[in-house]
Amino acid sequence: MLRPSFIPGRPQRQLRDLTRYRRTLVQERSREKQRAEKLLEDAQVKLSSVISDIFGVSGRDMLAALIAGQRDPYALADLARKSMRAKMSVLRQALTGHFTDHHAFLLGMMLDRTDALTAQIDALTARIEEAIAPFAAQIAQLDEIPGVGITTAQEIIAETGTDMSRFPTPGHLVSWAKFAPKARESAGRAKAAATGKGSPWLGGTIGEAAVSAARTQTFLAARYKRIVRRRGKKRALVAVGNSILTITWHLLSDPGAHFTDLGPDWHDRLAPQRRKRQLIAELERLSGKKVTLHDAA
Fold first, then answer.
1. Range of 231's domain?
2. I need a labelling partner for 150 at 20 to 30 A (CA). Which of 2, 86, 140, 290 fits?
3. Confidence class of residue 183 from pLDDT cuts 50, 70 and 90?
4. What is the pLDDT of residue 187?
């Protein structure tokens, strides 16, 4: 149980207001971009199938030309820059659609809204950097965790604070954040249980960090891969989020601590016999034959 003194002070509450509002605007900008992509699809302009980010430099130039009235796919594709020019023929096909003045009007408003949101997000980020400057050392500590960048570290500190004495153990922090499934047993058998509902702000931040960590070559990624095979994606991400919060507690509890990755093969090194059984079972599954090991000569 948490200590009753866990009440954020005014500086943390203000920092929390800033980071939460920034997250809200980032989500709204993503929705606005999705609306723009859907509008292009309605006009049969398949630009997103060729350009990974249609709101980058080349993409924005093409969108601006479409809004200005340019409809020639050759002229539009010629606006591609650098490596994008290697896709000229594919770009011309993607830009051959039925883009009308109606689409241009709506797309112009969507891009204006996106730009306005970007300006507000940048202003909030500058204000957050000023407010969180006293915790630069803690930000650097959390930035070492796989999947956690500067923005994520700022949001974690805004939600949890830096004083981990409020949480007697890492388990208390994990439980408070609702990343610890509750044990549930019926008729002597353990059953799957939900984690409960915690702060959606911290949950969203840790969830995104877990997704990013799962794409790395680290212990956290190996943990995700081990669990996702037998428990599914959602439980695997909760487990990785649990680990990220545990690491966060240890780092913030020790000002001089640094993150040290155990490595993606940590479980294999910890239990080689178990790993051997897993490899034999996998080989038997693939070959359909019984595998027997013999001592090497």
1. 134-264
2. 2
3. low
4. 53
Task: Give the tens place of pLDDT for each residue, 69-95.
Answer: 999 999 999 999 988 899 999 999 999
Residue 182: DSSP 8-state:
P
Alpha helices in 144-199 (DSSP H): 150-160, 170-176
Domain identity same for 239 and 140: yes
Report if pTM > 0.90.
no
* Domain membership flag for residue 4: no
Same domain, 117 and 187: no
Query: What is the C-alpha to C-alpha distance for residues 110 and 204, in angstroms, rounded to an integer?
Result: 26
> What is the residue type of 226?
R
Structural domain count, the chain: 3
The burial class, CB within 10 Å (0-12 / 13-18 / 19+), for 137 is: exposed
Q: Hey, what are 141's tokens?
A: 């500590």
What digits encode the pLDDT tens for the residues 229-262? 888 999 999 999 999 999 999 999 999 899 999 8
Q: 77 and 125: one domain?
A: yes
- CB of 124 closer than 8 Å to CB of 18: yes
Task: Report the C-alpha gap between 107 and 42 in whole angstroms.
Answer: 12
